[in-house]
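Internal ticket #5521
Category: modeling
Description: The requester needs a full-assembly model to guide mutagenesis choices. All entity lines are attached below as received. Residue total reported by intake: 571.
Assigned to: D.W.
Attached entities:
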Amino acid sequence: MASDISIMLAGFGGQGILFAGKVIAYAGLLDGREVSWLPSYGPEMRGGTANCSVVISDEPIGSPLITNPDVLIAMNMPSYDRYIGDVPSGGVVILDSSLVSGYTPRDDVSYYPIPATNLANENGLRTLGNVIMIGRLMAATGFASEETLRLAIDKSVSARHTDLIEFNKQALKLGATWQPDSEQGAESKPGAGSADTESEMAGIGAAV
Amino acid sequence: MAEKVLMKGNEALAEAAIRAGCKTFFGYPITPQTELAAYMAKALPPIGGTYLQAESEVAAINMVYGASAAGVRVMTSSSSPGVSLKQEGISYLIGADLPALIINIQRGGPGLGGIQPSQADYWQATKATGHGDGQIIVLAPSTVQEMTDLVALAFDLGDKYRTPVMILADGLLGQMMEPVELPETDGVELPEKPWALTGHGNSREKNMANSMHLDPQELEDSILERYERYLVIKQDEQLAESYLTEDADITLVAYGAAARVARSAVNKVRAEGISAGLIRPISLWPFSVDVIEQQVPISSDFLSVEFSMGQMVDDLRLVVDGRKRVHFYGHTGGIVPTPDEIADVIRRIAAGEKVNQVAFRSY
């Protein structure tokens, strides 16, 4: 995929939003493209929400702030509600259907729901729902190859957590290969609502 | 070529400072600068350096004074309200002809203001970094790469002209990550500082680090000597980047993060056939007078874009001196204008309108 892409990632603090953004940005860097990564910073971090903007482009990047993201990655309901209106017509929405449900879908954007948090918990990849979301993004947009993203994971996981690299790669694979069963499109199941994202592994998102 | 890595501006700047031979840092935490100090706290002790979190910004800048007087390559970093606290010390550094690197990762003011990106400290940095007659060199990066590239230059200019130097960035540049190629680690040779207070067992005349001259003639002489150096700085150290200015009817002038947005806006209107260009001052003091002067015969209009109520636009007006129209557009308080907003302003100027505006209001 050679065109520019702007991605807004949003969710709870502790879900690894900033880390997921870093992996995506690193993939762009490894592909030799211009990239920027900008986190939300300040009091809202302590209030529980986290978001970051990633731009991948073939031109020098002007503002790293995104007002109309080509892709919204929403990992909780407040984030979905806050940003869905900013996605331009034709945009892509990747959402964690474990935690985002009961919304009225727009008919001018493409939805790629995946129960990332539940999948992570069921597959021994607790707290790696963020990386499962990257896998879904990869499958939905082809913005980078799996090989590039695996390298990006190597680069992004901090030296203290290298033992978690393999789990991250499993999560990437899981997200990329997961298929919705009978339901299609925006039909996400009412969330099982497992918001249990706190664990000893939660630190990797912030460990940059 | 070294491998490009993804780093935050604050951290890349800190690493570049270490690689430029700075092993001494005094500071006090403040958002959105804190990662810079935190990086130093981790990185300096293992290489035999000194990181000290002072009890206040005032204490930190005076520790900088002491270290600089002893001939050490030294720096401090803060954000807007913290830099205000350092102003007295900066004035003393100027008065004692001591080099030091001061980083301001600007946030919205006045007062405690906010913590989002701002450029509202331009006046403070370039006109009044402290009381008394005096200036400091001010450099403004606009990418994370430049956050690193300007560090060694800043230290070297400080040593060359015996003056404090400020890198004036903002929360956007400090917090964002971009690919960056870090400078090589080896081969930093720090200059001799024969003026330093190093202890010598009475083997030479004593050196003094002092900004007090109670005899007015002595004080005036010391200031005149310093302003001789300022003349050289203004002549030799202007630094700016031009983008599509050769045929630009409308020239945008913007520095730092605002220049990124301005450049995107130039690209947008160029695609519509409006000949716009961008001058990006990298040295804010000395101001990029020469490159703007060269642009005056070419452009009919100049547009300053800033994250403030309009500060650098004053310097732009001084250079253009009424010969062409000067416009201003900005946002302040932590709001970053979008490329679309700027592009719209350029279209209005192209249609003959005079713009002097923040958000939707003219001032």
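Resolution: model delivered.
Comment from assignee: The first helix of chain A runs from residue 17 to 30.
Ticket closed.
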